[in-house]
Amino acid sequence: MLLKRFFNWVLLIALLFIYLYSLVFNVLPINTKIILEAIGLLISFIYFFDSSFQLKKKYRWIISFALVIIVWDLLVCLVNNDTNVFYLTKAMVTPLGSIFGAQFIYLCARKTINTTDKFFIIVSLTVFIECLLTLCIHFIPGADSFYTSIFVPSGGAADLSDIAGHYRLVGIGNAVAFGALPSFALGLYSAFYIIACSKKSLITISEFLIFATIILVTFLVVRTSIAVSAISLLALLIFGNKKKATLFWGILTLSVFSILAFYLISEYVDTAMMEWAFGFMVSKDMDAGSQGAVIEWWKTTSFDLKTFILGDGLYENASGGYYGGTDIGYFRQIYYGGIIGLAFMLYYHFRILKFAYLCNKSSLMKAVAYLLFISFLIFLAKGDLNMLSGFILLLVFLDNGIFEKKQKSHNSKYK
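User: That's the sequence. What structure does it adopt?
Assistant: Structure tokens below.
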């Protein structure tokens, strides 16, 4: 029984890993997340053709709103002659496949992961494992070559150093630079949820270690994570101080972890990475240039009225680089689909999180939902990304799947 449970957890972590990090094998150059989604869609046809089941109302809304986005994208394409064809549609509608990928994982997990607590534990554990593998790739000689012999690095680069140079860590799959942030936020707040609600000291200590590891490793992958890490620590103080034991174990665990991390960083992290990671805190001259560029973009970027409302239908330049010469996510969205396209994108993310919260109306779950959305807003202030897949995964598990039994009508024409 214990062995079977262990096998089930290993299988679910593997499936979540594929879902969150979109691995691509060298021998099978297809995004494995798409394979999960295809399997989930095929299984869903069983429910679609079964007259006793129906797609839940919230998922019908999600799909319907995707059609609204497609209509707006068509309008953007018609108004603007030169377009990066249907960028908004590809960015916002493609993640709908995540519904079926998440449904497949849910069907595999429903007997093992049958509570909200267990879901957050397995998500935080999955992200923690990815962080450990990221450290292994960087610090174990030959591990990076072994990784690239099995998986295709993000963007199809032949070597990990081609992606981010030698000054930052490179994660697994899509967890490279800014791409690491969606799984980071989901894993971080999953650990936060368990720490805030757990009554067992061992689980609390374990999740604090996971929480701290995710913060440290992700910071060495993408510095933007530091803002969200600070918010998560503040949230822990607010929700954790209700239990003295949580506060005690938190301070003790984080103190020991910090001392150990400081020693390991000083001993094994090279100067280039140290300067990249911490230089911006010391001096502008030591900053890699990203921080100054972001501030400059916020100060100088402007839009004419037509661009602000309808966009220019451009996301990337034909010669390469982002249209408008900015990395900021809000501005990229406005340049393509105007303020209306940006509003659609933000509302879509918010509504899916609201659906998830309404499945578990606890104050802690409400806090997780708001923290995830605030994190998303912070990320967009630096770059552009999409967090629909993670939000949909959260929703499907809290909602116990995407299908429900049709209610039998008790009305009759006979009295």
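The two ends are 54 Å apart (CA to CA).
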